[in-house]
Amino acid sequence: MTDLDNLAGLIADADTDKTAPLPPGEAAPEDVPHVPGPEEQALDLVNMFAGALAAYAPDAGAVWTDQARAMSAAAIAPVMVKYNWSMTAIPCELGAAIIVGPLLYQSAKIVAEKMKADRAAAAPAAAAPAAAAGRLAPVPGATETGAGPEVAVHPQMALYK
Known about the structure:
The chain has helices at about 5-15, 40-55, 65-80, 90-130. By secondary structure, the chain is mainly alpha-helical. It is elongated. The protein starts with a helix and ends in a 29-residue tail after the last helix.
């Protein structure tokens, strides 16, 4: 089969009316994508919300049992039908934000805790060489947070408050 034969096949396939009803006895093609109904979309919406909530507050996951999710989806499906709203109409950017957002949030919390632990572990290690050299005395004017000495401010700056 040549490239021209492949092209002719593609053209013939594109010219067929895929919306026409099938002749009697002919099976539907297998490449027809599944379009979820309102009930399935409502359950997806509830699962998405419950998953995001559980990612933010893991204790809240206990509230969203399978029965609670099913009841919530059954209540939301008629609303979706009434307002002709579909989860399949969500822009891909919003869908990505909904899916990836909670993962990024949890990752940021984990990284923040790791950085905090690393700083706490490094603080005694940094103080040890200074103590050995006899320089353990605090810096005059240093803040309690260890951010360094306070910056001197002229009294006249009080006029600008």
